Amino acid sequence: IYNHSKFVAQAEQQHWIIQEIPPKRGKILSIDGAVLASNQDYFLLYGEPRRIDDIVSVAKTLSEALASEERGTSTELFSKYYDLLDKDLWWIGLEPRLDPLTKQKIQELNIKGIGFETSPVRYYPEKTLASHVLGFVAQNEAGDRIGYFGIEGLFDGELRGKEGKVMQEKDALGNPILTGGFNQVPPISGRDVVLTIDRSVQYLVEKSLKEGVEKYGAASGTVIIMDPLSGDVIAMANYPSFDPANLESEDQAKNLAISDTYEPGSVMKPFTVATGIETKKISPSSTFFDNGPVQYSDYTIDNWDGKHHGIQDIAQLLQKSNNIGAAWVGHQVGSKDLYKYLVDFGFGSKTGIDLEGEDSMSLRPFDTWTDIDLANISFGQGISATPLQVLNAFNTFANGGILYRPQIISRIETDKGSIKMEKKIIRKVLSKENAETMHNLLISAVDQGESKFFNIQGYKIAGKTGTAQIPEEGKYEGSDTNATFLGYLAKSKKYSMLVRLERPKTSYYASETAVPLWMDITRQLVAYYALPPDDL
Description:
Elements: H1 4-15, E1 16-21, E2 28-29, E3 35-47, H2 55-66, H3 74-85, E4 92-98, H4 100-107, E5 114-123, H5 131-134, E6 136-139, E7 145-148, H6 150-154, H7 156-160, E8 164-169, E9 182-185, E10 192-195, H8 199-215, E11 220-226, E12 233-239, H9 256-259, H10 269-278, E13 287-290, E14 294-296, E15 299-301, E16 310-313, H11 314-319, H12 323-333, H13 335-344, H14 371-378, H15 387-394, E17 402-404, E18 409-414, E19 417-420, E20 425-428, H16 432-447, E21 461-469, E22 481-489, E23 496-502, H17 514-529
Parallel strand pairs: 2-10
Antiparallel strand pairs: 1-8, 2-3, 3-4, 3-5, 6-7, 8-9, 10-18, 11-12, 11-23, 13-16, 14-15, 17-20, 18-19, 21-22, 22-23
């Protein structure tokens, strides 16, 4: 009566020999049906000792056929197979993973009492494509193959399925009971996961990103493409990439788009301006006086190019990416309100995307900010975020002020049908009118700003550049930068895109590295989506 279920389970463990049969792992597919992760059928070789008449002959035949550098010599294998088969069992596993050719070779020997169970192995037909989204499968300390990082990690339970079992009754000494029970439970395959990723877009992005990183001599690069009207991720790529089937180190699998926090620089200025407009501390017609460097808390700030322009309005602030103007807006808004709206935009917390490995730098409480902290944060230094956080927040300017939870899973296929993932609105950040105001200011920022020499003819773009020095031991002494450009097609709003290059060597400025790469990818996407020019 006491702890009945516990002791029943212990008794069953003592009465039965249990061997597991691996299930087939669920596939991962793109939204257009391309298979990104699947399984190749390898085979578990097993023996049925009760059906074998001559154990010595069978062990000898198998050991000679399967001897290899990986498995061992024929002498070693003979000893292994003989010991395994010299048991009064219905079923015993002999080799866990035979490739199809080796299986066929053994099958042709027609050995009585030898059989095969399918033993699926993870397979990535596109090699490195979307590898940082997918993650990888590897053995844990217990020898079980489980998913790590990305989709493989977060959805391991859905993808893995349920092991099958072969059970044989045993006596108190652990020997099989000749007239005892025997039962075999087949494995249950894992569920398929369908992503929001478009395979064709992912491919062209990865190809262009590799070329861009090499062209501009960057240490790494990241591109994210989203649907700003729904939060769906259309493509997510990093370079260097890796092959999930041949991982050399775990660091290769780090998805920079969601796990690498960095100081974004001037791409943060639109959020400062939007906060000022939403709180009515400024308006698009507000002006500030830029006549030289400004001091805050005994620190001096200056514009990125050292130039000064006199009286400027808010549109000109974004066009010239004016640090002094952004700091002025930040101080009009104040630490408390700027902090509140940055949190509302999603900074300081994870986005909640369905990928394992997401990180988020915490946002210091506003009551710890000094005057120089407020100024720096207003133009994107002294604050850290992931590329996905920045792009997801930027989408609010395109969609009427709504912050969506980024979505990379479209649906999960089960034996009872599809489970569709619902779109999730996190919060309303801006009024529709103020989001539209920002939309127009960002069109002006591209038309008249640093990117204008690379702009695509016939298409209006709402966007912003960001060039940020990389802090070393708390100081900005080096010349290395992070170069970012993000934006969207102003008319169609078909997609939004962020391009980030880490430490480009050909130029420190985003306008000469991230911008041309963004525009190059957009030319390809305009053709792919067959988007007509704005005047048609």
